[in-house]
Amino acid sequence: MNKEIRPLTEKELEKVVDYFLNLTPEDDLRMGSDRKNFMRRDEWVKLLIDDSKQPLEERKFFYLGWFHNNVLIGHCNINNIIFGKEAFIHLHLWVPELRKHGIGTIFFKKAIRYYFNHFSLKKILCEPKSDNPGPNKILIKCGFKLLKTYKTKPSMLSIKHEVNRYELIKTALFD
To answer: Running DSSP on this structure, what letter comes out for residue 86?
Structure first.
């Protein structure tokens, strides 16, 4: 089975926006997202596409698509990027039936390597909702260390909620 990650095209960035706009109320609760914080679709798509045209060193976001047998099934992105130093990572497996089978971990490991190498990062941070088991398990499997649990608003899409802050320091493994 083919499992590929790659930067998303403009059309595929639209699919990321549609993924969020089509979340169920249960998905919003699980992830801590708040629709009141969502932009209009056209504004959101424009924001991502405009940013995608910037040099890597100036990017605010960077999205990698997860392709399983050539089908886009999820994405991983970084934001709060300090090129050459650190970024915050987010992971989303869009197809519920593919969750809990190790596929997300495979894609996430590839994405980590990509981000460390292409953005010259020394560390990657992640703040999933503390009671969302999927990403918390994947982060631990991928070597992230839990730093603390606290309340915050981890992204522009979120409500304030309890998160686990994880960190992964670049090692020779990622060169």
So the answer is: E
175/8 Cα distance (integer angstroms): 23
Q: pTM of the entire structure?
A: 0.94
For the stretch 44-60, pLDDT in tens is: 999 999 999 999 999 99
The rounded distance, in Å, linking the Cα atoms of 23 and 150 is 25
Please, is 123 exposed, middle or buried when counting C-beta atoms within 10 Å of its C-beta (0-12, 13-18, 19+)?
A: middle
pLDDT value at residue 40 = 96
Long-range contacts of 95-99 (CB under 8 A, 24+ apart): 98/68, 98/73, 98/74, 99/134
Residue 124, SS3 per DSSP: strand
Name all domains of the chain by residue range, CATH numbers in brackets: 3-174 (3.40.630.30)
> What separation in angstroms does the CA of 109 have from each of 14, 35, 166?
24, 29, 15
| Three-class DSSP category at 42 | helix
| Residue 74: closest CA among 142, 120, 134, 154 | 134
CB contact at 8 A, 79 and 47: no
